[in-house]
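re: the backbone from monday

yeah here it is again, tokenized this time
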């Protein structure tokens, strides 16, 4: 029989100092505990991060006392199970050292029978300073590696710890330590389930599960394993087998299989697989339970007209991957809750995404993260945790440590329906290539690289999760010269010419990657978020020390302003600047995504950099640290819409080419309606076309001839409004212009707004405008709200309807008095 004792009551104190122990939250990290005890200020406020650097330089001791009873001690095995220790830990029980660990990403189990006695026992975990360790290793041998940002420390690749802890171009330097995942005692009698693997065999209209189980036993006597598969609370099939030499394999055909699909392509039915291990008398000795989705999820790489495809396919249906890159949710992990993960991932689905890339500079995510992705239909591109650096692959201990980590993580995640890809690392190949191209970039040579990313990791994926594809690096070029990381014929690319290379947004329209796994543009968070770290008017000016502290890209604020000079009139005040930066960011990503979706036969995915933030900061995120949606997140709903209408202006020919892009699996008859208006709202021309949008296809719909309207009104006064209707429902809308907003002759707008309270926390708005209003956003004074749509362009003569969810309940009166509406015209 299995018994579990969770270890939750801990204290933490500095090693070698006579400062008192304070309450520790476990799972969590030391920075949170010190802040709670009033010993450090909030590192996210102002420049406080600089005041708390000493925490990462010291050693910390976590301690607990547990009472273990005789019953537990008498079992055959007593294990201390640590799901995550951050990072250089020495564990002692009752003063005796049990073990030392040095990998935050590993899961450890230690036999502790000889260490524990009946009654009270003390467990202490001593965490040595990761910073001191990496500095020492670096002093012994300098690892050639470029820095990601000036504040980043050298030496991070020596330690298997969240790499962005040491600073990144969107994150603070907070070198944490602590028990960051669950820790418990487990005792077992007779036998336990050691490992199990569920594989799926898909045939037309039939799915069979193959469940392999291995048990560890300490007594002789026959053992059997039973497996029950449950859908919506009902057992759909079950099977039992006798184990032979501790091993068994069960085959379970699933009657009437309900397939799992990515978001937007179908439902996400999840089956629970319940595994029980029993003795001869039928007593259950151990039990395991996992949720799975019935699906195949493959990376299809086939020769085609352009080179080699790079497309994901679910149940044999290829789909365009739409989504964003994911970074850690918080640098202080204690603050991460399932509710926060759910909100961020639900936001991704609400933004019409179907894929998230877990980027390799953070950590392998929490179980609940993958559970949520299974439920929501978000496919996961999973990096192994290596990013932008050389790694000491010539060190056998390092390689062994990494191999164990990879096995732990592959076994932990392989059953998830959402898991689409294992990827070796982030950007190492690109940086090695730069070195080879004589850019003087210091990085490991290819043979050192190949050991880990071409041999060790793919072999382990093949052994433990053969159903999931492995890809060595993001980005990687599989054909021809490996240095060609911008290859448009094959593989994935990171497109950073816009932003890092300061190319204009139109540059995106010149490239045709097979799959763009990173591209991005920065913005500031909204005024309420800025106010959480910059607390006076002077501090909130983007040139202040605090604002520059909360901007970690070397080119950050200057690049935002340079592009702003290309796009918008100079904003009138600090707040307008923040909002305009968000609209600008949304436009950058819109340019890229619309172009790639217009060319979706060739390009099969667009994952922008980045979905979330780990502290309040100016960054590439579309959702800020407080989960406030930036303009980009609202815009993603439109440019990732399942069936999207978009247009490309041609100032030479004076026309707009209109396209539909469909991610649907079925044909869809619809109507494209377009109108040309002047900036003061006069209707100059209009038309409509019937079309049948083909499944998983993009096609040109029409070309709108604008010559006449340009001749009478000039390009600066023209707006071309596109709409796609399915029966009586508007399913996609868009706006095309020939000039940038800074040169458009926009007019003052009057809004007619009617609000209605629907239920607690829910309102609706009916809105009409008398003149074209561009990127209109609604907001409430001193309260957060989520809108069904925001930052949209509104055309006179149309009725718009918005749903609003407010953070707290309000009366209609109070809602109306707090309601604010603005468009870009109000920013200058
Ligand atoms: C990428 C990422 C990150 C980085 C981002 C922005 O290429 O992989 O390393 O934060 O660019 O510069």
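seq for it, each position gets an aa:
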């Amino acid at each position: 029989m299995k018994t579990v004792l969770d270890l939750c009551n801990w204290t933490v104190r500095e090693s070698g100092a006579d400062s008192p122990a304070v309450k520790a939250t476990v799972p969590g990290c030391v920075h949170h505990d010190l802040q709670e005890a009033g010993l450090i200020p909030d590192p996210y406020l102002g420049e406080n991060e600089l005041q708390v650097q000493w925490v990462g330089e010291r050693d910390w001791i976590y301690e607990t006392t547990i009472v273990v009873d005789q019953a537990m001690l008498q079992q055959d095995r007593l294990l201390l199970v640590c799901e995550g220790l951050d990072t250089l830990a020495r564990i002692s029980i009752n003063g005796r050292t049990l073990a030392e660990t040095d990998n935050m990403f590993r899961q450890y189990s230690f036999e502790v029978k000889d260490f524990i006695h009946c009654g009270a026992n003390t467990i202490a975990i001593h965490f040595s300073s990761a910073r001191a360790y990496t500095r020492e290793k670096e002093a012994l041998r300098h690892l050639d590696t470029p820095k990601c940002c000036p504040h980043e420390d050298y030496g991070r690749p020596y330690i298997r710890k969240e790499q962005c802890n040491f600073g990144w171009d969107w994150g603070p330097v907070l070198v944490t330590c602590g028990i960051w995942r669950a820790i418990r005692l487990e005792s077992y009698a007779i036998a336990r389930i050691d490992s199990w693997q569920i594989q799926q065999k898909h045939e037309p209209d039939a799915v069979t599960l193959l469940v392999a189980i291995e048990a560890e036993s300490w007594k002789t006597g026959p053992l059997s394993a039973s497996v029950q598969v449950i859908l919506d609370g009902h057992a759909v099939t079950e099977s039992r087998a006798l184990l032979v030499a501790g091993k068994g394999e069960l085959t379970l055909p699933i009657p009437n299989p309900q397939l799992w699909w990515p978001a937007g392509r179908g439902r996400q039915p999840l089956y629970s697989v319940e595994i029980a291990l029993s003795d001869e008398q039928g007593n259950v000795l151990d039990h395991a339970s996992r949720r799975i989705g019935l699906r195949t999820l493959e990376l299809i790489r086939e020769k085609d007209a352009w080179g080699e495809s790079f497309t994901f396919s679910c149940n044999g249906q290829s789909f365009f991957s739409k989504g964003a890159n994911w970074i850690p949710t918080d640098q202080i992990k204690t603050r991460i809750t399932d509710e926060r993960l759910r909100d961020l991932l639900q936001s991704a689905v609400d933004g019409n995404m179907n894929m998230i890339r877990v980027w390799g500079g953070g950590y392998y995510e929490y179980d609940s993260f993958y559970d949520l992705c299974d439920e929501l239909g978000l496919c996961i591109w999973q990096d192994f945790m290596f990013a932008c650096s050389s790694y000491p692959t010539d060190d056998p201990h390092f390689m062994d440590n990494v191999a164990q980590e990879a096995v732990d993580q592959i076994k932990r995640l392989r059953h998830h329906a959402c898991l689409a890809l294992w990827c070796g690392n982030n950007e190492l190949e690109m940086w090695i290539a730069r070195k080879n191209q004589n850019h003087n970039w210091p990085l490991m040579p290819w043979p050192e690289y190949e050991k880990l990313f071409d041999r060790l990791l793919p072999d382990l994926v093949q052994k433990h999760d053969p159903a999931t594809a492995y890809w060595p690096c993001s980005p990687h070029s599989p054909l021809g010269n490996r240095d060609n990381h911008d290859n448009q014929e094959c593989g994935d690319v990171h497109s950073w010419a816009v932003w890092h290379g300061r190319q204009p947004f139109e540059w995106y329209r010149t490239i045709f990657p097979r799959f763009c796994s990173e591209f991005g543009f920065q913005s500031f968070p909204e005024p309420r978020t800025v106010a959480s770290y910059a607390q006076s008017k002077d501090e909130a000016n983007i040139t202040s020390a605090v604002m520059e502290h909360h901007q970690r890209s070397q080119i950050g604020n200057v690049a935002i302003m340079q592009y702003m000079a290309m796009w918008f009139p100079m904003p009138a005040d600090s707040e307008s600047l923040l909002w305009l930066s968000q609209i600008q960011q949304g436009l950058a990503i819109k340019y890229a995504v619309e172009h790639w979706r217009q060319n979706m036969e060739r390009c099969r995915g667009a994952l922008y950099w980045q979905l979330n933030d780990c502290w309040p900061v100016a960054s590439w995120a579309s959702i800020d640290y407080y989960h406030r949606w930036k303009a980009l997140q609202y815009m993603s709903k439109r440019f990732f819409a399942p069936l999207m209408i978009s247009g490309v202006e041609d100032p030479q020919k004076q026309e707009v080419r209109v396209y539909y892009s469909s991610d649907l699996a079925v044909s869809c008859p619809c109507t494209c309606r377009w109108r040309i208006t002047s900036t003061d709202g006069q209707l100059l021309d209009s038309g409509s076309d019937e079309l049948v949008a083909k499944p998983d296809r993009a096609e040109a719909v029409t070309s709108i001839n604008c010559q006449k309207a340009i001749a009478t009104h000039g390009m600066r006064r023209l707006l071309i409004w596109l709409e796609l209707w399915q029966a009586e429902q508007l399913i996609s809308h868009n706006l095309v212009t020939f000039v940038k907003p800074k040169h458009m002759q926009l007019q003052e707008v009057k809004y007619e707004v009617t609000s209605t309270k629907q239920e607690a926390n829910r309102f609706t708005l009916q809105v009409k405008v008398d003149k074209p209003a561009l990127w209109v956003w609604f907001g409430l004074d001193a309260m957060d709200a989520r809108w069904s749509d925001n930052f949209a362009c509104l055309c006179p003569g149309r009725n718009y309807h918005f749903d609003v969810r407010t953070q707290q309940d309000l009366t209609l009166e109070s809602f109306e008095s707090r309601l604010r509406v603005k468009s870009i015209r109000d920013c200058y």
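The mean pLDDT is 96. Residues 148, 168-170, 388, 426-427, 494, 518, 609 surround beta-D-mannopyranose (CB under 6 Å).
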